[in-house]
Automatic annotation (TrEMBL):
Database matches in Gene3D superfamilies: Cytochrome Bc1 Complex, Chain C (1.20.810.10)
Domain Cytochrome c: residue ranges: 153-240
Cross-referenced InterPro entries: Cyt_b/b6_C_sf, Cyt_c-like_dom, Cyt_c-like_dom_sf, Cytb/b6-like_sf
UniProt name for this protein: Cytochrome c domain-containing protein
Record SUPFAM superfamilies: a domain/subunit of cytochrome bc1 complex (Ubiquinol-cytochrome c reductase), Cytochrome c
Length: 240
């Protein structure tokens, strides 16, 4: 391109109020991209985050959890699924589990086709800005909720209490435990601790609570804190 053509092009861009793709646009992106890669590279040389513990197929009480940046997906389906079932829509869970995400992803693909409005100032685009804010709040809320669910509740959850205090004697289907140890009852019989998989249809919540507070038969007094009993009773009552 000679000087004259250059000038001509420059004027054309100016008239249209746009900038040339190269070098204005692409070069900048290239530089930012390279800087980002360089930063990551240097970071990886000096920082060595731990990889977590080695997988243990024998650990039946393991609570699988996604990486934190996927907590929002998990938590959305946890919370959403809960309210979905409260609404009595369990039969239609494909709407929540498949249709809703499919519509969300399809919308992302369609946005550039639907939204052809060239305005670039955010405040002049309330709908798109609103959707963006909604998206950020959505991700933020469910991520935070997921962090809370994993870091705070898991330690308290009944199956962790079961694992640490009950699983040496009792078995619950899906949660493991064992009944290998026979226990001597006060009357001198040897019995196996009962399978608790369906204890909710055998004992009432009050009976379960009584067994935990003042164990009968060969079950030892475990001196469970009241909070643990409060968590365990509804949990066990639901095993039907
Ligand atoms: C040292 C072994 C042992 C431990 C630990 C133990 N249990 Fe038991 N548990 C027993 C035995 C033995 C019985 C049967 C008592 C009987 O039949 O009279 C029993 C009975 C029960 C029952 C009544 C079940 C039924 O069908 O009658 C419940 C509920 C129960 N245990 C819950 C628990 C919970 C919850 C924990 C942990 C917080 C726990 N147990 C820890 C040995 C144990």
């Amino acid at each position: 391109m000679n000087d004259h053509e250059h000038e001509h092009k420059a004027k054309e861009y100016q008239d249209k109020g746009v900038v040339p793709f190269w070098p204005e646009h692409l070069l900048k992106e290239l530089v930012v991209g390279l800087v980002a890669i360089a930063v990551l590279f240097v970071f990886s040389l000096f920082v060595h985050p731990s990889l977590g513990h080695v997988a243990d197929p024998g650990d039946w009480a393991y609570v699988p959890a996604p990486d934190w940046y996927f907590y929002w997906v998990e938590n959305f389906f946890d919370v959403g699924g809960y309210y979905w079932s409260v609404l009595g829509l369990v039969k239609y869970d494909w709407i929540l589990m498949f249709l809703v995400p499919a519509i969300g992803v399809a919308t992302l693909y369609l946005v550039p086709f639907i939204d052809r409005y060239p305005e670039r100032r955010l405040l002049k685009r309330p709908l798109m800005l609103g959707l963006l804010m909604f998206g950020m709040l959505f991700l933020g809320y469910f991520t935070a909720n997921g962090v809370y669910a994993h870091d705070t509740l898991t330690a308290e959850e009944p199956y962790n209490i079961f694992k640490s205090s009950c699983a040496t004697c009792h078995y619950i289907q899906g949660l493991g435990g064992d009944q290998t140890g026979a226990v001597k009852t006060p009357t001198g019989q040897w019995i196996y601790p009962p399978d608790l998989s369906h204890v909710g249809s055998i004992l009432s919540p009050a009976q379960i609570q009584a067994q935990l507070e003042n164990p009968k038969g060969g079950m030892p007094q475990l001196n469970l804190p009241p909070a643990a009993i409060k968590d365990l009773v509804p949990f066990l009552s639901n095993l039907k």
